[in-house]
Amino acid sequence: MEAEASPPLGSPPCCLWFRRPGIYEDENGRTWVTVALRISPSHRAWGRGSPGSTHEIIVTVHVWQIPVHPQMPRSPSHLLMLGLPPKWELYPGRRYQATDSRLWEIVDHGQINSMEQLILKRLPSGSR
């Protein structure tokens, strides 16, 4: 039996806006759900770091394009604690620029089963 062909994957979304916890929306009204968030080093490891250490926290987020039931947008205040911005805008060089001007590298833009996926990794401060 032949596997079902996936539709061709276009460009990543131009913009992703926060709509409610874990949900973003792109310029075409498609919803993107945060399915995984990895923060390195862990808070425990960060707390054990030697005094004066300058380890940058690395944030990697996986979002899948999944239709969800619309609701009223909520405040993005909790996103700041997680390191996620209220908006990402496509930037040259396979990157997004967040509202705080930090850059996020597109680690992967592909498909898992039939779902479009983006994996974004926050670049260190000062990256251009």
From TrEMBL:
Q: Which GO terms describe its molecular function?
A: protein kinase binding; protein serine/threonine kinase activator activity
Q: Which Pfam families does the UniProt record give?
A: TCL1_MTCP1
User: Which InterPro entries does the record match to this protein?
Assistant: TCL1_MTCP1 (IPR004832), TCL1_MTCP1_sf (IPR036672)
Q: Which biological process, per GO, is one annotated for this protein?
A: intracellular signal transduction
Q: Which SUPFAM superfamilies match?
A: Oncogene products
- Superkingdom, natural source: Eukaryota
Q: Its family?
A: Belongs to the TCL1 family.
Q: What is this protein called?
A: TCL1 family AKT coactivator B
- The species is Monodon monoceros
Gene encoding this polypeptide? TCL1B
